[in-house]
Amino acid sequence: MPKISLIIPVYNTEAFLQRCLRSVVTQTLRDIEIIVVNDGSTDSSPAIIERFVREDDRILLIEQENRGLSASRNRALQAATGEFVSFLDSDDDIKEDMLEQMYETARKEKSEIVLARVERVHEGRGSTLIYPYREREDHLYNILHPNASAIACGKLFKRSLFLLGGITFPEGMYYEDQPTVMRLFYRAQRVSYLEEAYYRYYVREGSITGSLNAKKIGHIFSMIEAIRSFLAEKGLLRNYEGLLHARGIKLLNNNVLRFFERGEELAHMGAFRKNLRQYQWLRPSVIQSLEKDHFGVYFILLRSLVGTERYCDIDGLLAHFDSGSVETVRRHLAAFGSLEFHRLLTGYLQRRGIKKVILYGGGRLARETIPFVREAGVEIAGIVDRNETLCIEGIPMLKKTELDAFAQTPVVVTSIAFSKEIVAALRKRYEGMEIIDLTTLLRMKD
Questions:
Q1: Could you list the residue range(s) of the whole structural domain that residue 58 is in?
Q2: pLDDT class of 391 with cuts at 50, 70, 90
């Protein structure tokens, strides 16, 4: 029995397939089974696969008519004989020791699932890390959390989890990983987490995740409802319902509303409204739960809806939110849209004679702020961000604990969603620290 069956569905990825397969056949763990499913490719992918098959007898090739990602994975699972299984998309690749490190961890810790960080590569624009979410010893809580990555790739699963649970990937569905991975985590008794990033996920134009259609919108709702039904069947819905709603809303933010708030794909607004009415995701109890327990998700939802109303009617959806919060977000968006934040910030720094600052938050706002701060002659001594591997304009990345050495240095909060939480945490830890955020700047302006 091979230690691992690695499953790779392939459909028209000729530009990336050689890179993918080369990363597999050079794995330091040799006792593996490589199952490649050619899902009816019409480009040169079959020829590339055949070449690798001739060179490496560990590769099992399965040919089928085009049936989609889930059907390909399910077909490979039927053929798999390994003790563990792992999944790899054919336009991604893995580090040479991924399978060995995961297998050794599973063996030593007697784990049924092993997961690690994923490197998200924006080709030509650097990369970021996706962290495995681990707040509690409750593995189902961790994978249901809106910040958790529930993709099947980059993880190692005991094959018996699939077999004994009768678990397969739902076919003909977007976001097919999520309900499957949830079920696997429900069955697993022991899960291990690795700090290294072994899986490289490439973000490219035209990929399945970079487009929008009515079917995709509907599948976000139906997928979350499928998980909801599963949890209810197991008597667990009460424990996880708030998490599940937050996860669904974040999926909407990332995959639907991000288009609408830019005035794009508005032809699908009707499908969005229809599903909202059917599933009632924005009822008052859900909004209140989001604001209380998942403020980041709540804020981004509110920001997206406020942004969307500039382009089309959103059927009074903002009536579900506190009117003061809505007006605050409107003011924030107006400030960012007119670069007012940067003018207010640089004016404040110059009036106060501030020559050095720390930025707290390494996202879009930080990147937009850096040139204005530098132009004002102010040094940026560091950036604090959860993703400590970011590299932004050569500025040092700091851990939260390293702020102790900068307690006398003003901090500019360059996170929108978590501004309130960051300010509160800094004031609690550092008495007298000068903290500058948009709300403060707008208040001073008024």
A1: 4-204
A2: low
